[in-house]
Specification:
With about 130 residues, the chain is an alpha+beta fold. Helix content is about 50%, strand content about 10%.
Length: about 130
């Protein structure tokens, strides 16, 4: 029996179990329509004039947009839709798991997830 190095043994085990990770060419990415919706959501965040609260720290709308853009670019190939973006990027802290909140003038504080889903409905209507 021929000895396989640790890397080849792991790859063989993953393949046998059906767990091997596909290469970069097989990675999913949002289609053009989803990318346009995500861009519109980011614009809505940045131009909202609302205060976004992350881990009990309030921040400006511009800072919230910049933060969400960084997170989005890190995981965009794992997303397929604007809903994926909302659920996996813009709803909660990746570190603490705590939900993001938003406070807009004249409105009660709410979860950013709900606020973004409302914006998505508006974007799709227009």
């Amino acid at each position: 029996m021929r000895f396989l190095g640790p890397d080849r043994m792991l790859l063989g085990l993953l393949c046998a179990c059906g767990l091997a990770v596909a290469g970069p060419s097989a990675a999913a990415e949002p289609d053009e329509a989803a990318q346009a919706e995500i861009a519109a959501l980011l614009t809505a965040v940045g131009s909202s004039g609302c205060t976004f609260i992350r881990n009990d720290e309030p921040g400006t709308a511009r800072a919230a947009r910049a933060h969400l853009e960084r997170k989005y670019h890190y995981v965009r190939k794992k997303l397929e839709s604007a809903e994926d973006f909302i659920e996996r990027v813009a709803s909660k802290s990746s570190m603490s798991g705590r939900p993001y909140l938003v406070e807009c003038p004249g409105r009660p504080q709410q979860r950013t997830r709900d606020w973004l889903l409302e914006r998505l409905v508006e974007i799709r209507r227009s």
